[in-house]
Design goal:
With 384 residues, this protein is of the alpha/beta class. It is built from 13 helices and 12 strands. Helix content is 39%, strand content 14%.
């Protein structure tokens, strides 16, 4: 049996949802609860796997902190896209970025210190703070502020005790984005304090009006922030469990030291595949971005024309929809399953401000999204 601390963590909604038996209506099921892009892993990555799996060096332990070849591609990628210069001690390889996001409070804060978490925001940030015996502080993301936090409205005692602040743009689940001016203000606000910034950049590829900035463009001396970059989404590598953290040396060293004791180095094949993805990012990411830009425009326009209140999807791969009067997110999820055979994610796992919302995914084929729009046409009167 697990100890009391682990048993105190609420059960993961997504684990429960994925293992539940569904009872859809008579139509074929449409699953809009998926969180990974559709499509195959790109060929340059698969070719690298085929080649590197036979290399003897990859059949043994590799360097604990990663191959120079993978780190070189990370440095090249960040210099090209964000004009950020990285050294080896600014990089930690990650065995899936979710693990790092959950574990980081456990290895960086002291019990009783606070962590600001976005609300609405990714559900699994919270358990990491609880496992660290920290205090979770609410970071409201409100439509009147463009879903950017208003630091001046946060309680003084929380600001003084906060050791970390988590940000995530493009946002899951909101589809909101941030600009460089916001990151400039954020770095300026916290760089002379004890509070350090973790920016979850999982959806970096999917910013549709302009390229999304890195927070490290604002933290030019890498004083107070790290960025967690996932290869799962933009590179269609979710099954590979690979990504990296870059930025402030103190924060990166905490991750690397922890992994020195808990891992024996990322499998060389995974590193070679990841390096191949970054090396071929021009042909890979442009197609992904255009596919989801097209889908976001189609879904946003169609739902808006129906009178269904959906947030503008400026980035990411999700739509955030206010449910009709008389429902909350959970009851409307059940309604959609029974009446339209559409599976969505209710908003409550994303925080208290998600109670009256649902999240839909764009990570399905275009034809499925068109069918989704057609089915919602049948119930648009619920919002009128």
């Amino acid at each position: 049996m697990a100890n009391r601390l682990l048993n105190s963590i609420p059960e993961s909604y997504f684990k429960t949802a994925m293992s539940s038996e569904l009872e859809p209506g008579p139509l074929p099921l449409i699953n809009l609860a998926v969180g990974i892009p559709d499509g195959r892993t790109p060929e340059p990555i698969l070719e690298a796997v085929t080649e590197s799996v036979y290399k003897e060096e990859n059949q043994r332990y590799v360097s604990f902190r990663g191959k120079p070849s993978f780190k070189h591609e990370i440095k090249t990628f960040y210099k090209k896209h964000y004009d950020v210069d990285l050294e080896d001690d600014n990089i930690a390889l990650l065995y899936g970025t979710k693990s790092a996001l959950v574990q980081f409070p456990m290895i960086f804060i002291e019990p009783g210190e606070g962590v600001f978490l976005p609300n609405p925001g990714y559900p699994d940030y919270g358990p990491g703070v609880m496992l660290a015996r920290g205090e979770t502080y609410d970071l409201p993301l409100l439509p009147e502020n463009g879903y950017l936090p208003d630091y001046d409205s946060l309680p003084d005692h929380e600001l003084q005790n906060a050791r970390l602040i988590y940000l995530n743009y493009p946002s899951n689940p909101l589809g909101a984005v941030a600009d460089k001016a916001f990151f400039d203000r954020t770095v300026e606000r916290f760089k002379e304090t004890r509070t350090r910034i973790v920016h979850d950049f999982a959806y970096a590829t999917f910013s549709f009006d302009n390229p999304h900035p890195s927070i490290l463009e604002s933290d030019t001396n890498l004083d107070c922030a790290i960025e967690i970059y996932s290869l799962s989404k933009g590179f269609n590598m979710s099954g590979f469990r690979t990504g990296f953290a870059v930025g402030n040396r103190e924060m990166i060293e905490a991750i690397n030291t922890y992994q020195d004791h808990t891992q024996t180095g990322m499998w060389g094949v995974t590193q070679d595949a990841s390096a191949a993805g970054l090396r071929n990012e021009g042909e890979i990411l442009s197609g992904q971005k255009e596919k989801f830009r097209r889908r976001s425009a189609m879904v946003t326009d169609a739902f808006t024309d129906m009178g269904v209140p959906i947030n503008p999807i400026k980035g990411g791969i999700f739509g955030w929809i206010k449910v009709p009067s008389g429902y909350d997110g959970e009851s409307f999820r059940d309604y959609l399953i029974q009446e339209l055979s559409i599976l969505v994610t209710p908003g409550f796992p994303f925080g208290s401000r998600g109670k009256d919302y649902i999240r839909i995914s764009l990570a399905v084929e275009d034809a499925v999204l068109r069918e989704t729009v057609s089915r919602f046409q049948q119930i648009k009167h619920l919002w009128q």
